[in-house]
Design a protein that fits this description.
Order of helices and strands: HEHEHEEEEEEHEHEEEEEHE
Helix content: 25-40%
Number of helices: 6
Strand content: 25-35%
Number of strands: 15
Length: 270
Amino acid sequence: MIKKLFFLGTLFLHLIIFSQTDEITLVSWNIRDFGKTKNAEELNRMADILRDSDIVAIQEVVAGFGGAQAVAKLSDILNRKGSKWDYVISDPTHSSKYVTERYAFVWKTKHIKIKNRGGLIEALDTEIDREPYLMEFYVKGKKLSIINFHSRPHNKNPEAEIKALTTYICDSLQVPLILTGDFNVDEKKPVFDRLKAAGFTPAIQNQKTTLKRSCSRQDYLNYPIDNVFCSKEIGKVKGGVLDFVRVCDELENARKLSDHLPVVLRFSLR
């Protein structure tokens, strides 16, 4: 009887562990001028924010050497916090001098593998200022494609870029797929209707993600423009933001990391 109870207890514990590791937590973060302004203390704070995630998609990595160096340093700090991490960095986007940037992915290697280092979607470089970065991950052998995207500013018609990217996704890519990034457009806008009609679900709704320069009536959040969209083959468990500000007194210090909050999607592959 004791052996039976021990076996059942061990099995139950195994199922708990399996169910936890079967879920993946993805974080998408526009880190302002990443590689240009972050010191060691700030990188360590960022690692503490990200350490419980499994995959991190980063936008606004500066195109010069400093951007690649900052991603490598962040990965190294994460490696010293209890898990093994790896990273990839895109080539600079084919953009004008003051618009071009890189994208990056950082991920835990225990259950997540890659077979190549992905690439910018060249088919979109004439339609999108900072063409998106497509990466294929393998989660316990299951293929998962993730697109990392940073649209042009809100006053320069980001909707046209979102339409072009949506058409490309619906016509040319296979699922399961996650589209993540800074869209500079609220997910409630009609420009996302075709993506939603194709079965994509946003991680967050009615959630502001950018930071004001100063608090107004104890409110430090500004616009709802960052998000993560997952195809219907992906089981969304929970979506949200990682609010590293929390109180107005911390706003100035928080903005040294970024003027965006990270968006979180916890999911499982069906």
